Amino acid sequence: MNKSIFNTAVAVAVAAVFCVGCGGGGGSKPASLKGQWVDVNPKPEDSEEFELLSDGTAMFKNGDLNVSGTWNVVDKRLIVTVNMGGTNMSEAYNYKLSGYELTLVNDKGDTSTCVKKEKLGDFKEKQAAEKAKRIAATKRDVEKTPTFTDSRDGKIYKRAAIGEQVWMSENLNYAEEGSTCYEDSDDNCAKYGRMYDWSTAKKACPAGWHLPSDAEWKTLVDYAGGDSMAGKKLKSASGWNENGNGTNDYGFSALPSGFRNEDGNFNNLGVDAGWWSAAEDNTGWFAWRCAMSPDDEKVDMSKRTKVRFYSLRCVQD
Predict the structure, then answer these.
(1) What's the pLDDT score for residue 34?
(2) What is the pLDDT at residue 16?
């Protein structure tokens, strides 16, 4: 666990117990209490438990690792100090208490939610109910307005409500400068949409839509059953070679649009599909793309050179 993540986790843990005991921003110090984070960004790798002592000492437990820290409140901000490798590191948080939940925000805008351990069941039940309401509202909105028009060229696209997200139900077919059709065929563009290199894909989505982040692709794939089976549920029910059709459970309607290689050659129409993500690697040469093929039900998230051409699906802002 790196220092930043570890320090954030400790701060979150300490703050949760302190504020739940005190009501936030002052008051007498509570007796020793235990709690657990439930939603942290950045999120530690393992489940964490914590204990706050009334003398101001924080005990942080991560598996077999126990680390001590201290807490204090200065100008209504929670200050946490943790010793890592002989060096004291401090971080300040704004915080808000609502019942048994605590929200922390650091200076980078990272938000953390903490809950008293004995209230985790109540919190998860409330989370599930709120999520179900959001999903239902998203579905109603798309049912009411199942299409949208790209104001740039007047093309009409279908929308699909998938969990809390709204995705285009077909590949983008906007003639952004630098885009192409498979084998330069207008018929292929009409059926499969256009193809874009990564730099072009970043600016091609219409207003109100955007190139999906890696996290947004992961949200879609997780909702559709995870990497090992989401491909089957997201593929169209026809159009795939090698008996690779899917069930199209959510209206995503993935078609095997192929790609254009680095050498300019077109490959794999009818065989596989790939869509760019907004995420790039730290070398600057590669970006992540989501891909499906006919021979299994999987979804593959892997890096490809930015000069390849893939299809583009936009997700609603």
Answers:
(1) 56
(2) 37
Q: Is residue 297 part of a domain?
A: yes
Name the residue range of residue 235's domain: 145-316
* Cβ atoms within 10 Å of 12's Cβ, excluding its own: 32
- 103 and 112 Cβ atoms separated by less than 8 Å: yes
pLDDT at residue 68, as a whole number? 74
Whole-angstrom Cα distance, residue 285 to residue 298? Answer: 25
Residue 70 within any structural domain of the chain: yes
Residue 15: the pLDDT is 40
Tell whether 92 and 194 lie within a shared domain.
no
Q: What is the per-residue pLDDT for 80?
A: 73
Q: Please give the pLDDT value at position 263.
A: 94
Split into its structural domains, the chain has a count of 2
Residue 69, pLDDT score: 78
> The whole model's pTM is what?
0.74
Instruction: Copy the structure tokens of residue 105.
Output: 């925000």
Predicted confidence at residue 294, as pLDDT, reads 82
Q: Does 73 map to a domain?
A: yes
The residue from 91, 123, 155 where one domain ends is: 123
Q: Which residues of the chain have pLDDT under 50?
A: 1-33, 42-47
**Same domain? 285 vs 168:** yes
* 28 & 157 share domain: no
The one-letter amino acid code at 4 reads S
Do 108 and 201 belong together in one domain?
A: no
